[in-house]
Amino acid sequence: MSSLIPVIIAGGSGTRLWPLSRSGFPKQFLALGSTETLFQKACLRCKQLSVSIKPALVVTNEEHRFLAQEQLREIGLSDSTLLLEPIGRNTAPAMTLAALHSMADGDDPILFVSPADQTIQDEEAFKTAAESAISLAEQGSIVVLGIVPQSAHTGYGYIKADSDDVSEFVEKPDQSTAEQYINIGNYFWNAGIFVTHASVWLKAIAKFRGDIFEATNVAFKKISTDNQFVRPDKSAFEAITSESIDYAVIEHLPNSDMSIKMVPLDAGWNDLGSWDAVWHTSPTNEQGNALRGDVLCVDSKNNYVNAASRIVGIVGVENIVVVETPDAILVADKERSQDVKSIVEQLKRSGREESDLHRKVCRPWGWYDSLDEGERFKVKRIQVAPGASLSLQKHYQRAEHWIVVKGTAEVTCGDNVLTLTENQSTYIPLGEVHRLSNPGKTPLEIIEVQSGAYLGEDDIVRFEDKYGR
């Protein structure tokens, strides 16, 4: 049997799950009702498929590389390779990039391609369907997993299949058409999960979208490698046409000279495309409420409430979504939760960073939380992981005061290097070259008080950085 490589597509922005999901920390990296994130679950799910499995290829964007790397480390999959897109170009170029990389050593593995932002409740049923798909792919077919539909949903594409032969793909039908499909019985939701030999995919993309194949190949031939990170050429990748796997290839396969097959999947699948979908997959109480965090509920039913940082109380309401984070609160009709993306669009038009970043921002060395801000000052809580350090840097428009509240800090300030412990502090003058490091074995936490005329994150000049920023 051919070797198997999981390909995890993890490049989405997840705007419909705002304010928990943001472009700087999208939904695939969230743990929604679980100790593992959606991304981690997708990786582990694929890991169980075959004894001849190879390390995964994760296609994500440059901005999320450290998020993905850390989450892979947490689940013991640090041998995975991260293919970093300099800019999003949808799933067809992403899969083509993965196929080219998988064949670089002369092998022709089977690629098991899965989005990173879906849930599967029945893992055994998934494994059974996936292994059937792998067997069909071994024979030269492109195989899709078709979800057994639970309703006449208009937000998904549909696959028409007789036995395992696919005869048609239909994109997001209207309600009456979707109801007809359910009644007919041989239509399935398209989950975006595909299985095929790398060479078969490359043949298909070259046949149906030669422009995408050629442009991606140009970008791949100029890759650079940095440990786990593989980067295609930026300017060449930006020239690739943005297109999905479905539109570029899959919809052209029926009645062509290439084989397209489908395996049904009835395993409690959900793509979590809205807060309503999250409610459907969450445990609920006797009143149908899915409650996370510190929530008080009176005479209310069928609600989804997620309280991240404070008490949230609801009284006498039904079928609503309430999502609270330290810097934003969403209240929506559960049936209108798809429209949350309109809020994100308004934020972007206004130039507000709440569309992109949480108050607490992850960095490769740890995180910072912006606690307070006013005219000419900002207060942050900063945590630095053991053995990690910020870049050697300076700021033109602000000075900084650092107070250690936990752990041990090694501080470089100009030509001086000093060690600080709990309750000790130091001052970084405006324009001084400096660095903060954690030489200890426990997390370092400091309170940083910035003062100056401009306190934006872009007022930074890096001289050395172990993370390649």
Short description:
The chain contains eleven helices and 30 strands.
**Annotated CATH architecture of the largest domain:** Alpha-Beta Complex
Helical percentage: 10-25%
- In total, how many beta strands? 30
Total number of domains:
3
CATH class of the largest domain equals Alpha Beta
First and last CA, distance = 41 Å
Shape, principal axes of CA atoms? globular
Mean pLDDT: 94
Number of helices: 11
List low-confidence stretches.
none
Which structural category fits the helices and strands?
alpha/beta
- Largest sheet composition: 11 strands, mixed
Radius of gyration: 24 Å
Instruction: Please identify which CATH superfamily of the largest domain we are dealing with.
Output: Spore Coat Polysaccharide Biosynthesis Protein SpsA, Chain A
> In percent terms, what proportion of residues is strand?
25-35%
CATH topology of the largest domain: Spore Coat Polysaccharide Biosynthesis Protein SpsA, Chain A
Descriptive account of the structure:
- This protein has 469 residues and is an alpha/beta fold.
- Helix content is 23%, strand content 33%.
- The protein contains eleven helices and 30 strands.
- Strands 1, 2, 3, 4, 6, 7, 8, 9, 10, 11 and 12 form an eleven-stranded mixed sheet that branches.
- α1 (38-47) links the parallel β1 (4-9) and β2 (57-61).
- The mean pLDDT is 94.
